[in-house]
């Protein structure tokens, strides 16, 4: 069983490796579901972890139907990732009708080689998961990260099991979204998935001693500028113990 952890900063990458993750997916902006991270962050992570590093190629939040300008930016981001010697990238482009944009996905996959390429949860926004499965295989994706067309993977467990069966080893189906210690054993048993994706998220106080009492959350009331998102290695170890 391979474990992939999504990380949003350098500390999280180091802690994911400490917990025994096999691979990390590096993103920025968790509130948008992940977009392409800064090159400095990618480079620092690549230089300081030995596990596989995959990078999100997504020029913005929102939907997965991109303009020509955004598509060109994705090409440039892939070129930079190749220069930084990452192991893979994560992407997905859809047509307005909810089908996979096979032409542009294939162009990006071909450009990215020899890097491995995962189709991210754009897959979950397609009109027909089985049509999208065959399209992903046709254009050359190595795996699909999916919640089974539901908000959380455990809710999409029946479809995930069907996808694993229909994939029949032609592509890896990797369940993700809301995966945790409480549901991972059931999820893996029912889907027979060989890889799993989750966040193992934790938060810790930042190092600031002075805190401006007039500002919380840079305009909101969260106070999030004094908390740092990270990864809990013990969660990864616990999940590993549950699924082997």
Automatic annotation (TrEMBL):
Q: Does the keyword Cytoplasm apply?
A: yes
Under SUPFAM superfamilies, the record lists: CutC-like
Q: Where in the cell is it found?
A: Cytoplasm
Q: What is this protein called?
A: PF03932 family protein CutC
Any one Pfam family match given in the protein's UniProt record, by short name:
CutC
InterPro entries tied to this protein = CutC-like (IPR005627), CutC-like_dom_sf (IPR036822)
Identify the Gene3D superfamilies for this entry. Copper homeostasis (CutC) domain (3.20.20.380)
GO CC, sorted alphabetically, is: cytoplasm
Per the record, the coiled-coil ranges are: none
Identify a single GO molecular function assigned to this protein.
copper ion binding
Per UniProt, the keywords (alphabetical) are: Cytoplasm
User: What family is it from?
Assistant: Belongs to the CutC family.
């Amino acid at each position: 069983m391979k474990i992939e952890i999504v990380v949003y900063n350098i500390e999280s990458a180091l802690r994911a490796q400490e917990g025994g993750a096999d691979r990390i997916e590096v993103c920025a902006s968790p509130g948008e579901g992940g977009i392409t991270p800064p090159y400095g962050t990618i480079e620092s992570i690549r230089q300081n972890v030995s596990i596989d590093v995959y990078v999100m190629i997504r020029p913005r939040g929102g939907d997965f139907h991109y303009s020509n300008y955004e598509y060109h930016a994705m090409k440039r981001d892939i070129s930079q990732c190749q220069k930084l010697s990452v192991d893979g990238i994560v992407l997905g482009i859809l047509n307005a009708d909810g089908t996979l944009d096979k032409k542009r996905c294939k162009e990006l996959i071909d450009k990215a080689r020899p890097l491995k390429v995962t189709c991210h949860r754009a897959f979950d926004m397609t009109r027909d998961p089985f049509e999208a499965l065959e399209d992903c295989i046709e254009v050359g994706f190595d795996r699909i990260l999916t919640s089974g067309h539901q908000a959380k993977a455990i809710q999409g467990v029946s479809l995930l099991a069907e996808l694993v069966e229909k994939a029949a080893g032609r592509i890896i189906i990797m369940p993700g979204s809301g995966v945790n210690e409480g549901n991972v054993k059931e999820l893996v048993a029912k889907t027979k998935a060989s890889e799993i994706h989750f966040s193992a998220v934790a938060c810790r106080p930042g190092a600031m001693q002075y805190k401006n009492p007039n500002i919380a959350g840079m305009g909101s009331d969260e106070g999030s500028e004094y908390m740092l998102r990270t990864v809990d290695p013990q969660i990864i170890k616990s999940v590993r113990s549950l699924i082997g």
